[in-house]
Q: What sequence folds into this?
C-alpha cells in the first residue's frame, strides 16, 4: 500500500516548536546536537532559513508532520571542502521526529522521494549525504536508497561518512518503482 508523502517548505511560525521538540528526542539529539533551549534554537533556525544555499522542509506522511529535511547545494557548504563537487551537486539531511514512525521501514521511501525530487534539477547528477559515522541505521537506509560510501570526513560538528548517490544508479535502481513525492 502506497502512503501519501508530502514535503512542505518550513514556515518559521508554523514549524519551529515542532522541530525543536524533535531535536530534544533521544534518537535525534546525539546526531544533530541541537537539544538547546528554544530561544537559542529559534536563532539557529532563523539563520538556517535565511541561508540561500539550503531549503528546509517538514515531511508529512498521510498528512501528519513526522520528519525534518534539509536539502542543500554542495557549493557553499562545508562539505564542498571534502571532495571535488560538480556545480549542481546537492546534499540532504533528515530525521524522523515522531517516535511512533521509528522502526517502521519508512525512512527508505521518504528518502527515495526526496532524492527523486532533488534529481528533478536536470543539472544535478549527484546527491551527497554525510550521516554521522556512528549512525548505522541511517547509513544502511542511505545504502538501500542507492548511496555509496566514499570516505569518513571531519566536519565542524561531527565525523560523517561521505556518501554519493549518482543519478544514473538511482534511476536504474528505482526505474520500475512509483515515486510519490509532493513538494510545496
A:
Amino acid at each position: 500500500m502506497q502512503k501519501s508523502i508530502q514535503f512542505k517548505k518550513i514556515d518559521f511560525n508554523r514549524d519551529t516548536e515542532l522541530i525543536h521538540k524533535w531535536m530534544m528526542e533521544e534518537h535525534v539529539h546525539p546526531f544533530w546536537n541541537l537539544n538547546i533551549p528554544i530561544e537559542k534554537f529559534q536563532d539557529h533556525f532563523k539563520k538556517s532559513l535565511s541561508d540561500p544555499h539550503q531549503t528546509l522542509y517538514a515531511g508529512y506522511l498521510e498528512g501528519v508532520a513526522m520528519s525534518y529535511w534539509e536539502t542543500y547545494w554542495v557549493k557553499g557548504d562545508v562539505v564542498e571542502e571534502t571532495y571535488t563537487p560538480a556545480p549542481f551537486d546537492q546534499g540532504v539531511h533528515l530525521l524522523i521526529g515522531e517516535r511512533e514512525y521509528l522502526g517502521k521501514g519508512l525512512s527508505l521511501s521518504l528518502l527515495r522521494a526526496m532524492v527523486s525530487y532533488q534529481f528533478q534539477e536536470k543539472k544535478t547528477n549527484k546527491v551527497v549525504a554525510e550521516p554521522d559515522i556512528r549512525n548505522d541505521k541511517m547509513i544502511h537506509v542511505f545504502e538501500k536508497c542507492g548511496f555509496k560510501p566514499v570516505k569518513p570526513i571531519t566536519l565542524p560538528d561531527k565525523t560523517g561518512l561521505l556518501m554519493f548517490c549518482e543519478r544514473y544508479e538511482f534511476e536504474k535502481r528505482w526505474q520500475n518503482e512509483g515515486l510519490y513525492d509532493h513538494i510545496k
